[in-house]
Design goal:
The complex is a heterodimer of chains A (148) and B (226). By secondary structure, chain A is α/β, with parallel strands linked by helices. Helices cover 26% and strands 18% of the residues of chain A. In chain A, strands 1, 3, 5, 6 and 7 form a five-stranded mixed beta sheet that branches. A two-stranded antiparallel sheet of chain A has the order 2-4. With 226 residues, chain B is mainly alpha-helical. Chain B has two domains: 72 residues, no CATH class; 120 residues, no CATH class. Chain B has ten helices and three strands; from the N terminus they run H-E-H-E-H-E-H-H-H-H-H-H-H. Chain B has a three-stranded parallel beta sheet with strand order 1-2-3, with helices on both faces. In chain B, helix 5 packs across helix 7, helix 6 packs across helix 9 and helix 8 packs across helix 9. Chain B is globular. The two termini of chain B are 26 Å apart. The chains are: A alpha/beta (148), B mainly alpha (226). Chains A and B meet through helix 1, strand 4, helix 2, helix 3 and helix 4 of A and helix 1, strand 1, helix 2, helix 3 and helix 7 of B. Strand 7 of chain A pairs parallel with strand 1 of chain B, so a sheet runs across the interface.
């Protein structure tokens, strides 16, 4: 039971083939609104649990810290998140950077998906664009994507 | 993560993927990625180490200066050599008439409660098993190892979720049992290799596999390399 064995086992899992890599030039970092999007299946206890093939997302508020990690995969170490949510969801670190004017501001809302999906086409066509619009609507410029 | 990065970038936002598996990142060609050789589950590296996390973030934000798609390797690794041993005291047997796993789970309750008080229930129970039916879930595993078909053993939910809840109980308790914050995977290895319930769970998983249960039913009850 070792990290290197799990990584070797999952290294070849295919992703979606995009013909071109989209590329957006960002605004200056000290003016940017930054959001976190995680595939760790985090959600607030009051929100709906992720089902096994759940391609949807849950909204994470900057103002809350009492999130639960409910990923369906057993193939990662959960104790880092248990000790410190910033290990997966670096919300306090971003706020510190905003306080230092390194980044413009932290988005008020962030997104969480369940990364244990094999059929990525539904995310590509449905919940991915929907999440993008959600973030655009609150003026997000830069997105940090964190897995587990 | 790379799929979402492509979509968000096309919508006009700059993205930075944190990747722990370099091959996966490279094969999915995200617009910007920082490959960090950190343990799975710890994309920012070290818990409770803000300085370390800030250095990782600084390196990630530097990618925004790139003028074309870029994948960069972070220059610090946190290798897991699978030799991290937790010296956690397990509770002594209290009731010799009880199955050792049930006795153990009762003995760990104070540590679990202290950890919940200190950290909150971030990875613990609540998917399909909670404190009310924890012993029922373990009793079902005992029955499976004793020959009861798994569908008739009274397992209170999808086996992988039941397993995650039981594992969560132990990996939460270990936060208060270990003298130092456990290294990545150390709590998992301690649970599956050293505890009565971990060994019981692996035995039940093997029994289910041997009985011909569908592979997804039993396989995800433990990490895939188990």
């Amino acid at each position: 039971m070792a990290d290197s064995d799990i990584k070797a086992m999952t290294a070849q899992i295919p992703g979606v083939d995009f013909e071109e890599t989209s590329f957006t030039n960002p605004v200056s970092l000290n003016e940017a609104t930054v959001a976190i999007v995680t595939s760790a299946a985090l959600h607030h206890p009051d929100d709906e649990e992720f089902t096994m093939l759940d391609i949807g997302y849950r909204v994470l508020e900057s103002s809350k810290h009492d999130y639960v990690l409910r990923h369906w995969s057993p193939n990662f170490d959960p104790t880092g998140f248990a000790l410190d949510i910033n290990t997966v969801f670096p919300i306090d670190r971003l706020q510190e950077l905003a306080d230092q004017n390194v980044i413009g501001k932290v988005a008020k809302q962030h997104l969480s998906y369940a990364g244990n999906q094999f059929d990525l086409s539904s995310i590509q066509l449905d919940s991915g664009p929907s999440g993008a619009q959600f973030l655009k609507d609150q003026g997000v410029d830069v997105v940090l994507l964190t897995p587990v | 993560m790379s799929t979402l990065a492509h979509i968000f970038e096309a919508a006009g936002m700059a993205t930075i993927v944190f990747g722990s598996i370099k091959e996966q990142v490279e094969s999915t060609s995200p617009p910007r990625a920082l490959c960090c050789d950190f343990p799975l589950g710890r994309p920012l590296g070290e818990p409770q180490n803000p300085e370390f996390q800030h250095r990782v973030l600084e390196s990630a934000f530097q990618l925004l200066e790139a003028e074309e798609p870029t994948i960069k390797e972070y220059d610090v690794s946190i290798p897991d050599t699978a030799d991290e041993i937790l010296a956690c005291p397990l509770p002594p047997r209290y009731d010799p008439d009880l199955h050792p796993a049930l006795d153990e789970v009762r003995g760990l309750r104070p540590a679990y409660d202290r950890a919940i008080e200190k950290y909150g229930n971030r990875i613990g129970m609540g998917r399909t098993v909670d404190l009310e039916n924890l012993e029922e879930a373990i009793t079902a595993l005992i029955k499976i190892t004793e020959g009861t078909p798994w569908k008739e053993a009274g397992i209170p939910g999808f086996p992988s979720r039941v397993s995650q809840d039981i594992r969560g109980y132990y990996e939460t308790a270990v936060l208060e049992l270990s003298e130092n914050a456990p290294k990545a995977w150390a709590g998992t290895r301690w649970f599956f290799n050293n505890t009565e319930t971990g060994k019981l769970l692996m035995s039940a998983r093997q029994t289910m596999a041997d009985s011909g249960a569908n592979q997804p039913i039993w396989f995800y009850m433990a990490p895939g390399d188990s």
